[in-house]
């Protein structure tokens, strides 16, 4: 069953920063996304939910241009991804940062060197300036300065996430893609990471596209939520829209035992 899409008040008069129209993605015989439409608005934190294997990572990767689509258009910052030359595409990529699920830091590089990888690719700055910039990012994500010279293997899970976020922020992006940023963190670590994302979004004016299963994150930091199922967006809007939906998956997700516990927790 398809639910009527209902734009929230939050979206009025706001710039669309990512526009997905009629996107179809499949592998072999299987079609994962079946003509999906989605808008992401400048400055919002959009939580992207859906059952396991529904295609949340596939859509994220399609927006990043990492998996081919069979149909549809994707515009990011007003540019149609299909129309870009390799150099235009490289310039566009400067404007987004990505935090993949596994953190994906280079294991042989220190935190500082990891953060400097995108900087070295795009900026032509002295080593001293690159060091200063990296230390700024380290501070921004709440890591101790002495984390700079550590290898990923010397860090806790929470610190790895922060270091990966610092690298995603290396080029001062306008959009950050986060794939299950709080997975693997304990509830306190996850809550602190959520707070960090909310603070960065407010202070830097970031737009955040966050794939998450974490109900706490959805309640506490997301401005809007989009739910994926059956290859399309089942519903999108603030949490109230999710709670009012009578789609069976949304009902069991947002009214299940765990959801009730989160609500009761005062979110
Ligand atoms: N490169 C690929 N080749 C073939 N099938 C793929 C490929 N990438 C993803 N898939 C399939 O597409 C489906 C959607 O995968 P995806 O990782 O996007 O799900 P998800 O919604 O992010 O799930 P989860 O919440 O478990 O991470 C899965 O069935 C997966 O096996």
Automatic annotation (TrEMBL):
- SUPFAM superfamilies assigned: P-loop containing nucleoside triphosphate hydrolases
Coiled coil (residue ranges):
none
Give the Gene Ontology MF terms in alphabetical order: ATP binding
Listed A to Z, the keywords are: ATP-binding, Nucleotide-binding, Transport
Q: Which CDD domains match?
A: ABC_Org_Solvent_Resistant
**Top-rank taxon, per record:** Bacteria
Kindly give the Pfam families that the UniProt entry links to this protein. Answer: ABC_tran
| Entry-linked PROSITE patterns | ABC_TRANSPORTER_1, ABC_TRANSPORTER_2
Domain named ABC transporter: which ranges? 11-255
Per its UniProt record, what InterPro entries does this chain match? AAA+_ATPase (IPR003593), ABC_transporter-like_ATP-bd (IPR003439), ABC_transporter-like_CS (IPR017871), P-loop_NTPase (IPR027417)
Q: Which family does it belong to?
A: Belongs to the ABC transporter superfamily.
- What is this protein's name? ABC transporter ATP-binding protein
Upper taxonomic classification of the species? Bacteria, Pseudomonadati, Pseudomonadota, Alphaproteobacteria, Hyphomicrobiales
């Amino acid at each position: 069953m398809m639910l009527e899409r209902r734009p929230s008040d939050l979206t009025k008069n706001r710039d669309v920063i990512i526009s997905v129209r009629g996107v179809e993605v499949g592998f072999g015989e299987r079609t994962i996304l079946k003509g999906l439409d989605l808008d992401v608005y400048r400055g919002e934190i959009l939580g992207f939910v859906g059952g396991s294997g529904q295609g949340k990572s596939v859509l994220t990767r399609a927006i990043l241009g990492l998996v081919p689509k069979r149909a549809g258009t994707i515009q990011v910052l007003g540019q149609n991804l299909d129309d870009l030359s390799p150099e235009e595409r490289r310039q566009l990529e400067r404007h987004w940062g990505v935090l993949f699920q596994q953190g994906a830091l280079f294991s042989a590089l220190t935190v500082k060197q990891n953060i400097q990888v995108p900087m070295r690719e795009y900026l032509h700055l002295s080593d001293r300036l690159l060091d200063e910039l990296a230390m700024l990012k380290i501070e921004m994500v709440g890591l101790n300065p002495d984390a700079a010279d550590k290898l990923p293997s010397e860090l806790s899970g929470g610190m790895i996430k922060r270091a990966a976020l610092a690298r995603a922020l290396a080029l001062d992006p306008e959009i950050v893609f986060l794939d299950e940023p709080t997975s693997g963190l304990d509830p306190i670590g996850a809550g602190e990471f959520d707070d960090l994302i909310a603070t960065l979004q407010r202070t830097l004016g970031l737009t955040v596209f966050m794939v998450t299963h974490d109900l706490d994150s959805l309640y506490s930091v997301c401005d809007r939520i989009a739910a994926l199922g059956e290859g399309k967006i089942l519903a999108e809007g603030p949490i109230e829209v999710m709670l009012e939906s009578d789609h069976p998956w949304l009902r069991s997700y947002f009214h299940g035992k765990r959801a009730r516990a989160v609500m009761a927790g005062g979110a």
